[in-house]
């Protein structure tokens, strides 16, 4: 519980800090998102190395995705992904019905516009994790009703 | 282990980000430290509310300090403070012989000059925690040999 709260509070501070420092330099919203995403990327890279230290080699891409949905998600967000879908052509959709970093926010449409900044770091986290497993990707997130959230992963073929 | 790594990686990113954004705006080192300290302060405020939710009322200042050294420290830094000393006039010295956020750094004097930026957040954390328990203080840290570290708390009488 303690560490969980620590991460959440720190994550909130981070967002606030990035947006505050942007105000002074008149940086647009998009660049804040990018910065948060980049931080997530590097944290994801570090984390996945720890998490996979003792796991067996992955069979294929889908196997990697399952690891992200189960082990990785549980470690970071304290629950598994609720639904994983794929078109078998390099697109994966991960649905989390109660995403941890949105769970503290009010439901309804009132704060929907603020959702992207609370998701950017996590998108980076997934992208960084996948990247260190040799899977290059683009990760985006969308929210229709809080605190449910969909992460879309597009694999970049090399 | 997972959450622990998450906090450490995120903490590192935070420091890097604060110092990087300072470079662009030509902010001096002192202000970076202050910003990190302030973030720690707010996180500490939040955390202490969670941690003390079900604890009994504290008897006195020393009782509060013991809570910080044991419960708070264990929750955040995964070990207790090794030594608590006080002059009974409002100064407390908390010694941690293997401080978690310095443990990954090389010992010796090589990186000693970088220690302050890795301690600022934690100083704020303690100050914020104490503040929400009604104890106003100034918290500073010093390192003589890594990864040992001393936190000095000066109580501000109101």
From TrEMBL, chains A, B:
Subcellular location as annotated: Endoplasmic reticulum; Golgi apparatus, cis-Golgi network
Keyword Cell inner membrane among UniProt keywords: no
One GO BP: endoplasmic reticulum to Golgi vesicle-mediated transport
GO cellular-component term (any): trans-Golgi network
Pfam families named among the record's database cross-references: TRAPP
CDD domains noted in UniProt: TRAPPC6A_Trs33
Gene3D superfamilies: Trafficking protein particle complex subunit 3
InterPro entries: NO_sig/Golgi_transp_ligand-bd (IPR024096), TRAPP_component (IPR007194), TRAPPC6/Trs33 (IPR037992)
Keywords: Endoplasmic reticulum, Golgi apparatus, Neurogenesis
Function in brief: Component of a transport protein particle (TRAPP) complex that may function in specific stages of inter-organelle traffic. Specifically involved in the early development of neural circuitry, likely by controlling the frequency and amplitude of intracellular calcium transients implicated in the regulation of neuron differentiation and survival.
Homology family: Belongs to the TRAPP small subunits family. BET3 subfamily.
Protein name: Trafficking protein particle complex subunit 6B
């Amino acid at each position: 519980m303690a560490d969980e709260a620590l991460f959440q509070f720190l994550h909130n501070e981070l967002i606030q800090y990035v947006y505050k420092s942007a105000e002074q330099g008149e940086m647009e919203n998009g660049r804040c998102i990018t910065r948060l995403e980049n931080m997530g990327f590097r944290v994801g890279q570090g984390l996945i190395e720890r998490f996979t230290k003792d796991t067996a080699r992955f069979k294929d891409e889908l196997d990697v995705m399952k690891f992200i949905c189960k082990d990785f998600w549980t470690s970071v967000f304290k629950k598994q992904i609720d639904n994983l879908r794929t078109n078998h052509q390099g697109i994966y959709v991960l649905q989390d019905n109660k995403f941890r970093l949105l769970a503290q926010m009010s439901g309804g449409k009132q704060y929907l516009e603020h959702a992207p900044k609370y998701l950017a770091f996590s998108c980076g986290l997934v992208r960084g994790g996948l990247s260190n497993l040799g899977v290059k990707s683009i990760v985006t997130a969308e929210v229709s009703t809080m605190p449910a959230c969909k992460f879309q992963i597009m694999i970049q073929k090399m």
